[in-house]
Amino acid sequence: MTKKSEIFNTVYRLLKLMHSFDKDLIPLSLLCAIFSGITPYLAIFMSGLLLDNLHSKNYELAFYIVIFFSTLIFILSYLKEYFQKIRCKKNNCNEPKFAAFIRDKMLSYKYEKIQSPQVYQKLVLLERMISISGGVDALVAKLIIFLKGLISSLISFIMIIYLCLTLPQSDNQVLSLIASPIVSTLIICGFITLTLMIIIPKNRKFNQALQDLLQIQGKSELAITSIITDILQNYKVGATTRIYDMGDMLKQRLMDVNENDIIKCHKMFADYITNLAVFHSISKSAIIVVAYFVILVKILSNAITIGMFTTYGLMITFFTSTLMDTLSSYTTICSISNYLKYYLEILDWKECEESGSIPIEKRLDNEYEIEFKDVCFHYPDTDVEVLKNINFKLNLKEKMAIVGKNGAGKSTFIHLLVRLYKPTSGMITLNGIDIQKYDYNEYISLFSVVFQQFKMFAFSIKENVTTTKNCDEKKLREVLTQAGIMERIDELEQGVDTFLMKYNEDGVEFSGGEMQKLAIARALYKDAPYVILDEPTAALDPLSEYEIYKGFDAMVQDKTSIYISHRMSSCRFCPNIIVFDMGEIVETGSHDDLLKLDGVYSTMWNAQAQYYE
Predict the structure, then answer these.
(1) Is the pTM of this model over 0.70?
(2) What are the tens digits of pLDDT across the range 509-523?
(3) 3-348: CATH topology
């Protein structure tokens, strides 16, 4: 796809999407462009006709011309402003809808897709560039200017042709020759064509340079956004930046990025703009000089009247201005579409794992059997296998522990189990059927998970635990009690309706351990047949950890539960332990059996034994 067709495709698809939000926006924009393009010419025509009638002392007709054109200009100007006002309101309303639509789509995409650093960079860059140069609303505004310019240029071109076709009424052969339709057409149209042949490549070169600058600026903006969002605007890291006196380093980092990249880009951009503006100004002046020469010859040869001289003079001046504005707006459209195309990339992503069609059998006994069969996995951007030939069956209603060193594949195993990842090879089955064939939403309803990198949100405690506006209050208190956090919540003035984090003025900042207890309560509240805790007690002291496991053990007695932990003490509660090493299952068995093997498990246990004495 060529650059032009890519830009056209981007603009077309974005407008099509905007049209799906509001079917009136594009027609209103077209009306605004048409009225904006026509109205100035009415004043130009009026001035020419008025001057001719005043010159011939036809005052009554001159009066009616003023009344007619003034009324028409007023009506069209009023309609233009009226439609423009409606368009702006709709555009302002549609921009948040557009952003919300994109963010909603993000929730349906594959987990492994949104994990990609390239995806993250594009999203941050998109948000940053929209805040600087505008989004779809800015694109629509520039398209109106572009269409207005095209309409004005078309009217001007028709008038230029009409001017060229006027016949001279002079005996002067030189004037008659220059004023003849063929020669005057060749002079004006030929010079405009020649000018455009010079201007368009110049604009194309400028547009390419602008895209290159935006790419450089985009990476720099990404660095600035990271510093501002992740550090300066994140109150949680405020203590670290102050204790270690990082202020000067952060300011210097921002200055380096600004001076070396952003300011440099802005200076280069300003130079390009200035040079292009000067070139446009010279080109515009040259066209006006040539056009006025032809107009003057036409009037000297009696081909046009004094009034028409005024009309064509104003029209040529207006034509050159709109022509340059049209070219400039096209450059801006190219610039905006260059980063808005990331919106379309997001829309083109394949959505969440193929949903499948088989429903999950509803079982009161929670007897669901899951088996890994020769499962291997590697991430899309690498050939290094994270998991190798995993063969394992999850025993029903059994508590099991998964242990291993960092990077052994424990968390990846869980991500495959809950369909956040898809096996590179092999198969995972539920009751003998490939899990990819089950309805996705029904399948994940089988699992409650506390991930190692769990997240609490700046919502109320109730919303964080129940993940819904409506909840079972009795069940909520029960799971909060079992997670060991209810007593702390009862101390709060608003109880379970208290907002977490200090983004809200009434928000409360919980400790890491308290947050983990809330995450565990959330898993308990879902009440799924499979309960998975991926490093759930990393921020807890050993006593709190023991209390959590003790209460949790009672809660999941009729469920299949999986514990992943670096702390070997959790294994005491599990009759079956799976040991991962280098992406493979190397040992299985009970705590006592594995200690006798003198392998990976016993080595890890002995290294931590001092903490369990």
Answers:
(1) no
(2) 888 778 888 888 888
(3) ABC transporter transmembrane region fold (1.20.1560)
